[in-house]
Design brief:
four-stranded antiparallel beta sheet; alpha+beta; Alpha-Beta Plaits
Length: about 160
């Protein structure tokens, strides 16, 4: 595959939360296999991990609409000739363990700066916990000052 013909892509996907945790790695491996079979070269990836969705997603499965509030999210970045995208898209549409997917072509800035989703979630969680601790500490200090002030006032009377 000549380098000039290849483009950079990212496949972001949600694996259904009904898929057993041990089978999520198999879904991930099968997606990577589809890309490689189509002639793609995987450059970076983030394995799917379970998290709560920002909003409820409805998907028609097994003869009825089902609502999901969590999923396993992951992504794969790869290079591929644009003509081969049809192969990958057809495979994705047939994969019944995928809740949603998005396949985009990356520009040079996006290609150079992958966003590590799960890592950023962990950093956000740590920041939230630190904020909560600081707030608790400030409230505790304020309560101590209030009680110290009341004691001093009572002694003056």
């Amino acid at each position: 595959m000549p380098a000039a013909d290849a483009a950079h892509y990212e496949l972001a996907f949600h694996v259904l939360p009904t898929v057993a945790e041990g089978e999520v790695a198999d879904v991930f491996a099968s997606l990577k296999s589809v890309i490689e079979k189509a002639g793609g070269t995987i450059t970076t990836q983030e394995e799917p991990k379970r998290f709560d969705l920002a909003y409820e997603i409805v998907k028609y499965l097994e003869g009825r609409n089902r609502k999901f509030t969590s999923a396993y999210f992951g992504w794969i970045r790869f290079t591929l000739e644009p003509a081969q995208l049809v192969e990958i898209t057809e495979e994705l549409e047939g994969e019944n363990r995928i809740l949603r997917h998005l396949l985009i072509r990356l520009n040079k800035m996006e290609e150079a700066n992958p966003f590590m989703f799960h890592e950023s979630l962990n950093e956000s969680q740590v920041a939230v916990e630190q904020d909560e601790e600081a707030t608790d500490e400030a409230e505790k200090d304020k309560d101590e000052q209030d009680s110290d002030g009341k004691d001093a006032t009572e002694e003056v009377k």
